[in-house]
């Protein structure tokens, strides 16, 4: 029984009542797009929304999820390439502050890309099995934008190029990126210009080759990490790179675990062993010395402290 001072719904003011099912349009709201630029036209939505072509016969409900998950990832990768291209150029021009702004955005994009694996994880193995055969040999392994990002960050691997030989434009683009300095190459050159002793052979390296860790770079980074206050710009930039790598690995890990729950130990549609092949990517690194330097950092021991054995 309601208490005597309880108000009926009709007495509540309009803000607290949840009875509205309609919002009146305001006078200034544009409605005539015969001449004016519309949302859909600006974004070219007709092209975007007509680019989903499920192939399964009979049609399978879940194939649209599979297509859109890939397409949204490719859209985000397009933006990542855009931001990294700019970050590299800004570093080359000694504008590390703006470069860090670009990297900050990439980190948020990565977080979004990683979070969206949970959408695909709603696809069960039996649902996927209904349309998997229709992908034939198609696989994310053939994503040229993904390779472009790997190359730009520093995982140069000329062995990836033949996969793109069928598409002249993509092949040329990857070939170009293979021969350009990676973000890491640019950071090391920037450190050198700021007076840090990066070995000349590292600065002169053939940037199309996989990067190899160098003790001299660990030594230069050790000086920075030993005194962050003194070298804040370098320290902050280095830690931003570690965030990028960390995020990249988390994406790879979530991909692997999603793949594992959907296809188990089946081979990949692109022809690899599947999960074991993906697992090996978790051992890759973009910025090896940024991890090596961590082991070189001396633990601080308060005066008079004799405990501990240096582990953990
Ligand atoms: C049911 C969902 C998925 C399955 C079962 C799957 C499976 C696989 C497998 C087995 C590989 C290894 C190459 C091969 O043999 O095909 C691979 C690679 C790859 N996939 Fe997926 N994938 C799925 C979804 C996605 C999505 C949504 C993306 C986003 C674009 C993606 C991106 C990639 C990339 C970039 C690679 C290359 C990774 C590397 O070189 O280490 N995959 N995928």
Question: Any overview of this molecule?
Answer:
This protein has a single domain (57-264, 273-293), classed as Methane Monooxygenase Hydroxylase, Chain G, domain 1 (Up-down Bundle), CATH 1.20.58. Helix 3 (63-92) packs parallel to helix 9, helix 11 packs across helix 14 (288-296) and helix 12 runs antiparallel to helix 13 (275-281). With 312 residues, it is mainly α. The radius of gyration is 26 Å and the shape is globular. The protein starts with 38 loop residues before the first helix and ends in a 16-residue tail after the last helix. The protein has helices spanning 39-43, 45-48, 63-92, 96-115, 117-120, 125-129, 144-153, 168-178, 183-193, 200-203, 215-226, 232-263, 275-281, 288-296. The protein binds protoporphyrin IX containing FE (HEM). Protoporphyrin IX containing FE is lined by residues 69-70, 73, 120, 123, 128, 139-141, 143, 146, 255, 259, 262-263, 268-272, 274, 277-278, 281. Homotetramer.
Annotate the secondary structure layout.
Blueprint: H1 39-43, H2 45-48, H3 63-92, H4 96-115, H5 117-120, H6 125-129, H7 144-153, H8 168-178, H9 183-193, H10 200-203, H11 215-226, H12 232-263, H13 275-281, H14 288-296
Helix pairs in contact: 3-4, 3-7, 3-9, 4-12, 7-8, 11-14, 12-13
Bound molecules: protoporphyrin IX containing FE.
Q: What would the average pLDDT be, to the nearest integer? A: 94
Q: Taking Cα atoms only, what radius of gyration do you get, to the nearest Å?
A: 26 Å
CATH architecture identity: Up-down Bundle
| Strand tally | 0
Number of domains: 1
Structural class: mainly alpha
What is the CATH topology? Answer: Methane Monooxygenase Hydroxylase, Chain G, domain 1
What amount of the residues lies in strands?
under 5%
> How many angstroms separate the termini?
62 Å
Distinct compounds present: protoporphyrin IX containing FE
